[in-house]
Design brief:
With 95 residues, the chain is mainly alpha-helical. A two-stranded antiparallel ribbon has the order 1-2. A hairpin with a 2-residue loop joins β1 and β2. The longest helix has 17 residues.
Length: 95
């Protein structure tokens, strides 16, 4: 499966990073390690047709939850910090 191959590739890169390697073998080819490497996965498992990540790939990442920001609260704090006395009412009107 494609995701299992990707998991092996990411694990190879992570192992090279942990070993502080300058170069490493990546599936038969020696390449230079870029220390600015970053890999992120975005999943919305609630949607139809989406599959769960395989366990070997899931183990390589830290889970993180995201939520919709409270725009009214953000606007209220920004307005209050600029000196508006009635920031709560103004923030509600803006959002």
């Amino acid at each position: 499966e494609v995701l299992s191959v990707i998991a092996q590739q990411i694990m190879t890169i992570q192992n090279a990073l942990k070993a502080n390697a300058e170069r490493f073998e990546f599936f038969g080819k020696e390449i230079r390690l870029n220390r600015n490497y970053g890999c992120f996965i975005t999943m919305n498992p609630g949607y139809a047709g989406r599959t769960e990540l395989p366990d070997n790939l899931k183990a390589l990442f830290r889970p993180m939850a995201m939520m919709v920001p409270d725009y009214a609260l953000i606007a209220e704090i920004m307005l209050f910090s600029e000196g508006f006395g009635d920031s709560l009412t103004l923030a509600r009107k803006q959002t």
